[in-house]
Specification:
This protein has 17 helices and no strands. The chain is mainly α. It has one domain. α10 crosses α11. The longest helix is centred in the middle third of the chain and has 30 residues.
């Protein structure tokens, strides 16, 4: 029970760290993200590239989705322009996972100390940098904690039974990824926890990839919530995100073992393997839809039509 409570505390710490990191990066951007989106969303390719860069900088596809839905709702972006941005956010969010594969846990305390100094004694951008360093210290510390606790947690009766089910029925792992990501509104945290268990050798890469695919669907809940009462175009934008991620996941599921074998060839590190799987999934899904973004938009309208 103590191990499970500790793991829950680490999850909250990781989630709070990600939140602080995003807040600091958003503050550092000076709140100009929305204006930049409006200027660069003219063509699908430029919109995708900017959506990717902005998501990587803000460390949050959910934040970019909320901004996009808000701009569409305000009439500053059209529904068709938002499609390219959505394709880019899915790619940009994978950069966080690639970053987490490096062991920066030894920097947690220095980052915490520097962050405190910058936050309490700095102003403007220096203060924002302090928030970023504080967030990074929590994220890297929590990731190390996940790895340390993964083995003892996996030996508890409940978790052993859970992993037996997940490893035997990959669809269960897929559904768990959806539910967990929707509940905490963060695919990054969900996949980050899976990376910790992978590093400890608790479950195979195939289980981790199943959770990752599900997490990419669960994270769409943020955009759907943001679209409530925001108008028809905003609603269509949110559904575009759902169909892109759900469709991509359903296409990849039958080839899950192929994806796992490919990632094993790319790296011997289990955490990097899962991060690479997330990158490949989102990159290939977005590139496959990009040339047909207008048709994809018409499909969404036909399916969820304007009332």
């Amino acid at each position: 029970m103590l191990y499970l409570l500790s793991f829950l505390l680490l999850t909250v710490t990781f989630l709070f760290g990600i939140h602080r990191l995003r807040a600091g990066l958003f503050a550092l951007s000076g709140g100009h993200a929305g204006n930049a989106l409006k200027k660069l969303a003219g063509r699908p390719l430029s919109a995708m590239l900017f959506g990717m860069v902005l998501t990587a900088l803000l460390q949050s596809s959910s934040a970019v989705m909320v901004i996009t839905v808000g701009l569409v709702s305000a009439g500053m972006l059209t529904f068709s322009q938002s499609i390219g941005i959505i394709l880019g956010t899915n790619i940009g969010t994978t950069f966080t996972l690639e970053l987490l594969t490096f062991d920066f846990s030894s920097l947690s305390l220095p980052f915490l100390g520097a962050g405190a100094v910058f936050y309490f004694f700095g102003k403007g951008r220096v203060k924002s940098a302090g928030i970023i360093l504080f967030g990074l210290s929590l994220v890297f510390g929590a990731m190390r904690g996940f790895e340390e606790l993964a083995v003892p947690v996996s030996k508890t009766a409940f978790v052993q039974h859970l992993f037996t089910v997940l490893n035997t029925h990959l669809l269960s792992a897929f559904l768990l990824g959806i539910l967990l990501s929707a509940a905490i509104q963060s695919s990054t945290v969900t996949i980050g926890m899976a990376m910790g268990f992978l590093a400890a050798g608790v479950f195979p890469l195939e289980t981790g990839i199943s959770i990752m695919l599900g997490a990419n669907i669960g994270t769409c809940i943020t955009g759907l919530l943001a679209s409530i009462g925001a108008g028809e175009e905003a609603r269509l934008t949110a559904f575009t995100h759902v169909w892109l991620n759900a469709g991509g996941a359903l296409v990849f599921l039958p080839f899950l073992h192929v994806l796992a074998d490919t990632c094993r060839m790319l790296s011997a590190n289990p955490e990097q393997q899962l991060a690479h799987a997330s990158l490949l999934f989102n990159l290939l899904s977005s590139l496959a839809v990009l040339p047909f973004s207008e048709r994809f938009g018409r499909f969404i309208i036909a399916l969820h039509g304007k009332k």
